[in-house]
Batch of 2 targets.
Target 1
Amino acid sequence: MKNQFQKLLLCFLLAGNFVVAQEEQIINNIVNEAEENSQLEELAHELLDVIGPRLVGAPQMNRAHNWAVQKFESWDIPAEKQQWGEWRGWERGITHIDMVHPRLQTLEGRQLAWSPSTGKKPVTAEVITLPEVTDSLSFQKWLPNVKGKFVMISMNQPTGRPDYNWEEFATEASFEKMKRERDAQEAAWREKFRNMGYTSRTLPVALENAGAAGIISSYWSQGFGVNKVFGAYSKKVPTLDLSLEDYGMLYRLAESGNKPQIRVEAQSRKLGTVPTFNTIAEIKGTEKPEEYVILSAHFDSWDGATGATDNGTGTIVMMEAARILKEVYPNPKRTILVGLWGSEEQGLNGSRAFVEDHPEIVSNVQAVFNQDNGTGRVVNISGNGFLHAYDYLGDWLEKVPDTVSQHIETNFPGSPGRGGSDYASFVAAGAPAFNLSALNWSYWNYTWHTNRDTYDKIVFDDVRNNVILTAVLAYMASEDPERTSREQIKLGNHPRTGEPQEWPTPRSPTRKGGLD
Ligand SMILES: [Zn+2]
C-alpha cells in the first residue's frame, strides 16, 4: 500500500515537473517567435502606410477590417467582421490650401473629418477674424460681414514653442509673463464667445448660414508642429485645420489690415449610410471552449494622420500576439478571441456593442487584455477593482520574462476604470478586464489625435515587448486551472464629492452615428 502511494506521488511530481517544463518551453517559444520572426514592421506598414487612417464610416475603415480578416486567415485563425451599427459614410479627398494675397505661400492644413467639400472648383476668398463684441445683438449685426469670406474661429496662440522649451531656455520672468498673458488672452477669448452667444460647436453653423465661404480653426496640441484633428461642425462649407504657424500668420495679416486671401480646394465624398464593424478572430479552446481570453484593441482612428500610435500599435500587438499563440500554442485550453473594435473614438461604440450583443461570452470571460495608449512598453497594470485580481494576474505576471515585467508597476486591487478605452466596456459588465498601460513617449502632445501620428513614431522594440507580455498573459490566463474571481472591491465615498461610489454600469453604444 505504501509502495502504491509512493508510486502515485512520484507520478504526480513528474507530471507537475512536466507541466512546469512545458510551460517554460511555451513561454520560450513565444519569446523566440516574437523576437526572431516578428511581423510587426510589416503589419504596421500594411495597416498604416497602405490602408491609412481608419475613420468610422470611411471606406478605409472597411478596408482595414477586410485586411485584418485576411491576415488572421492567412495564419489559420478564423476571423470575421461583425456588424454592430451604421454610420455616416464619408471619404476624405484632397485638401490644398494656398495663401494667394498678399503673397503666395502653400499652407499646411487639411479639412476636418466629415467636412463638406468645396466642390470641383477651388474657392478663393479673403480671411477674416472674429470681431470684439459686447453682446450677441452686436454680433448678429456684424454677422453679414462674413459673406463670401473664410472666418478664423480659434484663438491665435501667442507662441508656437511648447512650454517645456520655454522652461528650458526662457528667463524665469519671461516664461511667467508669457503664461500670465496667455491665461488672460484665453479668458478674453472665452468671454468673446459668451458675448457672441455661441460655442465653438454652434458658431460654424451660424457662420455658414450667414454666407461664410468656409471655417478655419487651429487646435494646437502644445508641441512643435502638432495639431489635433477632429470632426467638422459645419454642414455646407468646408472646415479646415491650419497649422499654428500658418494660422498665426494669416491672423496677423488680417489684424494688420493686409486682407489675406486663400485659395482652397477641399474635396470629399458623401457615401450615405454605411455599416460599422468589429473584427473578431478566434482560436478555439479545447478543454473549456466556452470560457474566453480576449485580446482587445480599438481598430479605428481619427484621420489627421494614420493613427499609428492610436491605435495602430495596440492593434498590431494583439494581432501579432494571436499569430504567435496560434504558432506555439495552437490548442489553448480556453478560447482566445481577438477583438478589433470599431468607433472607440466616438465613445467605445464597438466594444460596448460587443458586450451588449454577446452576454454569453462576457459572462464567461476569464480575462480581457486591452492596449490603447501608444507605442511605449507597458509600465502599469491595475487590478481595476477586482478584489482577487492579484491572486491570478499576479501569478500570470510572475511567468512573464523579467526583461518585460521589470518595467511594470502593478496596482492591486485598484479601482474600476470608467472610460478612456475599451477595457471599460467589459469592466462595467463585471468581466475581469485589464488595461496594459504604456510609457507615454510624448503621446498626449505629439501623437494622440494629431497630424503627426505616423509610422515613424513607432518604437518597435517597445511594441515587441508588449507582444511578449500579451501573449504570455493570454497563455497563462488560458491555462489557469481556476476560473478568475469577479468579486468587486467595496467602493468608498468619492474623494471630492463625498457621495458613495457605485461600480460603473454598462452603457449602450451609438448604433447609428454621425447622421442628422
Ligand atoms: Zn485610442
Note: The pocket of zinc ion is lined by residues 298, 310-311, 344, 372 (CB under 6 Å).
Target 2
Amino acid sequence: MAHPKRGCAGRIRCRSWRACDDAGMAITVREDLAGIPDYVPGRKIPGAVILSSNEVPGRPPEAILGAIAEAAADVNRYPQMSCDDLMARLSARLDVEPGRLAVGCGSVSLCQQLIQAMCRPGDEVVFSWRSFEAYPILTQVVGAVARRVPLTADHRQDVDGLLAAVTDKTKLVFVCNPNNPTGTVVHAEDLNRLLDNVPDHVLVVLDEAYREFVTDPAVPDGLGLASTRDNVAVLRTFSKAYGLAGARAGYCIAPPQVAEGVRKVVIPFSVNKLAQAAAIASLDVMDELLARCAGVIKERARVYTELRGMGYEVPESQGNFVWLPLGGRTMAFNEHCVDQKILVRSFAGDGSRVTIGLPEENDAFLAAARSFAS
Ligand SMILES: Cc1ncc(COP(=O)(O)O)c(C=O)c1O
C-alpha cells in the first residue's frame, strides 16, 4: 500500500493506520519475534472440568477474599512500588535479608526479569526440554539463545546433559523442580553435582513453583541451597499451593547482586495492590492452604494408581498434576477429554498434563481416561 501522504517526513505526522512501504519509513516489528512460539494458556470452556493450568481447586479462604476487598476499596491509589510490606513479611518468614529478595508479578515475571538482568543478545540459557514453556519464549525475547537438553527416557532432567550444554556464553541454567509438565524431580545428590560443577559465571535458577506438593525427602529445599551457595536463585509462586493464580505474585531469592538486578528491571507497579494484599493474607492462613495441598497430594496418589491400573505410562509426579506421555496419541486423547467436557493441557506429539482437581473432578477425568483406554 502506497503511503497516502508522500513526503510527510515521518510516522508521526502521517495519520494512516496502514504501514508505510516507503523505504526506511515503514514501521517494523523485530523480525525474529515471528520465530518465537506463543505462550499457550490452558483452555477454559464454561461448564467444563478445568484440569489444564495446574491451579488448585476451590474458593480462596475468606481471610484472603477480605484482604482483596479491602485493597480494592483503595484501588484509586498506586500500590507499593517495592512491595515493602510483602517483602518484610517474606524476609521474616524465610529468614532472608530483603537485599536477597525480589517480588514479581507471578514467578513467570521473575523468570523474565532474571533473564533480562543477566543476559545480553547472544548469551545462552540452558534448560531441560520439555519443561515450563515460558523459558524458551522469554529467552528469545531478549535475544538470548535457548539451549534445550532432552529429558531422559524416563522423563527426568538429565543433569549431566545440562552440564554438558553449558558454554562460556551460558548465563543461566533453569532447573524446574518438580518439572512442569512431567512432575519428575531432581534429587539433592544430582542437584549438588550440578551446582558443584557449573562454571563460576553460571547462575542456576531453581524454579520451585510446585515445591509445596513435594513429599519425596530426597528433593532438596531450594531455600536451604540459596542460603549456602552463591550460584543459586530460587523462584516461588503464590499461584499454585497458595491458590492465587489470578492475583499474580511470586518471589525470588538470589545472591544480592542478582536480586538487585531483578528488582531493577521490574515494570514499575506491576505487582498490583490486590495481589500484594492477597499474598500477605495468604501467609496468615498457611496451615489452611497446606492442608488443601495435602488433599491434592492424596488425590495425586489415587489418580496415579488408577491410571497405571488402566495401562497408562505415568511418571511419578511431585507436582499437583500428572503427565501422560502419549506421543502420537496425545491429541486424540485431548479431543476425547474435551468431548467429555474435561480440559487437560496437551502438547501435540508429546503428552498431556492433567492437573489434580477435586475428587469428583478427578473421577470425571479418570472415567474419560478409562473410556479412551478401552
Ligand atoms: C514451573 C513453573 N514456573 C513458573 C510458573 C509461573 O507461575 P506464576 O507466574 O503464576 O507464578 C509456572 C506456571 O505454570 C510453572 O509451571
Note: The longest helix spans residues 286-309.
